[in-house]
Structures are given as C-alpha cells and as structure tokens.
C-alpha cells in the first residue's frame, strides 16, 4: 500500500513539474516572439521606414477658445504618406464669458449675456506626410498633416433659472417667450447639464486644419504623440454666442493635443 501511495505521489509531482515546464516554455516562446517583433521594428526605424498598414488613435485637445476630443483612423498609402479620417467634438467658448456665482443660493454659476453653448462637430480627412523618422527607438518622428472637412455646429440654448414669483422657478433663454426674465431677472442660477438639449439648432459649415505631430512612442507600433495646429472654420450664418457682442461666421484658433493609440502592420 505504501508503495502504491509513493508511486501516486511521484506521478503527481512529475505532472506538476511537467505543467510548470510547459507554461514556462510558452512564456519564453511568447517573449521571444515579442523580442523578434520589436527587433524587426527597430531595424525598420533605423532604415528610416514606418512600416504599417493602418492605425486607430484617440486624443484630447486644448484650443485657444475651448477644448475637445477626437478619434482618427489612418490608412497607409506609402511608407511616408497616409490618409487620415477624423471625427472631432469640441466646445467653443467666447473670450468675454465670465462665470458669476450667486452668493445667496447654492445653484449653478451664471454667465451673464451668454446666448448659446457652441459645439462644433467635425468630420474630415487629412493627408499625412512623414518629415523625419526616429533615428532610434527613443527618438521622435515628425509628420505634417493638412486637410479639412465639414462641420455641424450645434447651438444649445443657454437657459438660466429665474423666479417668476410665488416660488415659481423656470428655465428661460434669450429666445424664449419669457426672454424679459432672461434679460432682467431675477436670476436664481445657471443652467444644469440636462437643460436645452431638446432645443438644439444646427449650423453647417466647413473647415481646414494644418498641423504637426511629434510621435515619441517607444516603438512604431504604438502611437504616443503631441500635436499642434491651427483650425479655420466658416459657417453658413453668424453664430449667436453673447448678447451685444459682434457675431461671427469665421473662427480661427490654435490648439495643442495629446494623441495615443496603436498601429497595425
């Protein structure tokens, strides 16, 4: 009986050791494959090539008059040229905006004179050109991008909470039937995040955007970059943003963005 028990123990220990060896070998194989892939990428970098078929990235940007986010799909045409398809959502603010808090009420702050929130949604295409590739895996590649597309400007009414008397609180805007309350008060507080979406107005337009992208990702299969550029936008009619301030159809702004994503070879 003791011999049988000893034999079973030996078999179990052998199976455990074999399983551990198999798992270790698999890990080593995966590591070797990864190292080979990285070495191949580094070699291509040293030869001055970015060798990939496509990429998908996202990012955030700060503009001179707002902020936004974007996604991008890129399709390589040659080792030094790609076509970029982009979707972007931003909020554009007027430089005269100033938030004021009601010291006697814990409500949202008010921006006096603001008529609309302004959200440009852009759908466009850019041509990307490689200016300088990474000299090594710790280098920086530089690309120049130029293109443009169409815009759908979303105007969301800026609604303030007013007291109409008898403890009746309502939200009114500049173009509301009760606009006299919007202009003269008494204003209790600013808008909530949920107000005004059912009264959106759409203003179409188009834009152009030149930019430079500095990719400092360790390997070309990963995208980690900083982008700087300009955006020029033109709309089919003037955009109402603030009361008694000149309205514009053309907007020019600079931006800086953080880009991250991955390439596929």
Q: What is the C-alpha radius of gyration, as a whole number of Å?
A: 29 Å
Shape: elongated
Count the DSSP helices. 2
The tally of structural domains comes to 1
Q: Helix-strand pattern, N to C? A: HEEEEEEEEEHEEEE
The major β-sheet equals: 8 strands, antiparallel, barrel
Give the CA-CA distance, first to last residue.
61 Å
What is the oligomer described by this structure?
A: single chain
Poorly predicted spans: none
In order across it, which strands form the biggest sheet?
1-2-3-6-7-11-12-13
> Care to count the β-strands?
13
Q: Give the integer mean of the pLDDT values.
A: 80
Specify the helix fraction band.
10-25%
CATH architecture: Beta Barrel
What is this structure's SSE topology?
Elements: H1 2-46, E1 54-63, E2 66-78, E3 81-92, E4 99-100, E5 110-111, E6 116-132, E7 141-157, E8 160-163, E9 169-172, H2 179-184, E10 187-189, E11 201-215, E12 222-239, E13 248-264
Antiparallel strand pairs: 1-2, 1-13, 2-3, 3-6, 4-5, 6-7, 7-11, 8-9, 8-10, 11-12, 12-13
Would you give an account of this structure?
- The chain has 265 residues and is of the alpha+beta class.
- The chain has a single domain (33-153, 196-264), classed as Porin (Beta Barrel), CATH 2.40.160.20.
- It is 19% helix and 51% strand.
- It has 2 helices and 13 strands, in the order H-E-E-E-E-E-E-E-E-E-H-E-E-E-E.
- It has helices at residues 2-46, 179-184, and strands at residues 54-63, 66-78, 81-92, 99-100, 110-111, 116-132, 141-157, 160-163, 169-172, 187-189, 201-215, 222-239, 248-264.
- An 8-stranded antiparallel β-barrel has the order 1-2-3-6-7-11-12-13. A 3-stranded antiparallel beta sheet has the order 9-8-10. A two-stranded antiparallel ribbon has the order 4-5.
- The longest helix has 45 residues, at 2-46.
- The mean pLDDT is 80.
């Amino acid at each position: 009986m003791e011999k049988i028990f000893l034999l079973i123990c030996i078999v179990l220990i052998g199976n455990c050791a074999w399983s551990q060896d198999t798992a270790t070998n698999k890990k080593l194989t995966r590591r070797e494959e990864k190292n080979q892939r990285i070495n191949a990428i580094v070699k291509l970098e040293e030869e001055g090539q970015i060798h990939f078929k496509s990429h998908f990235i996202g990012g955030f940007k700060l503009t001179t008059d707002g902020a936004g986010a974007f996604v991008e799909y890129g399709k390589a045409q040659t080792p030094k040229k790609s076509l970029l398809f982009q979707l972007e959502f931003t909020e554009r603010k007027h430089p005269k905006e100033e938030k004021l808090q009601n010291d006697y009420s814990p409500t949202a702050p008010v921006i006096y004179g603001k008529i609309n929130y302004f959200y440009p949604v852009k759908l466009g295409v850019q041509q990307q050109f490689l200016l300088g590739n990474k000299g090594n895996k710790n280098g920086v590649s530089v690309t120049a991008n130029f293109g443009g597309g169409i815009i759908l400007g979303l105007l969301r009414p800026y609604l303030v909470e007013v007291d109409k008397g008898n403890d009746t609180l309502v939200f009114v805007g500049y173009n509301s039937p009760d606009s006299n309350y919007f202009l003269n008060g008494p204003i209790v507080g600013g808008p909530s995040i949920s107000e005004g979406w059912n009264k959106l107005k759409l203003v179409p337009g188009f834009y152009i955007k030149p930019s430079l992208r500095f990719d400092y990702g360790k390997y070309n299969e990963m995208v980690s970059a900083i982008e700087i550029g300009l955006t020029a936008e033109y709309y089919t009619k003037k955009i109402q943003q603030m009361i008694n301030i000149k309205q514009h159809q053309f907007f020019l702004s600079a931006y800086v963005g953080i880009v991250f994503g991955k390439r596929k070879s």
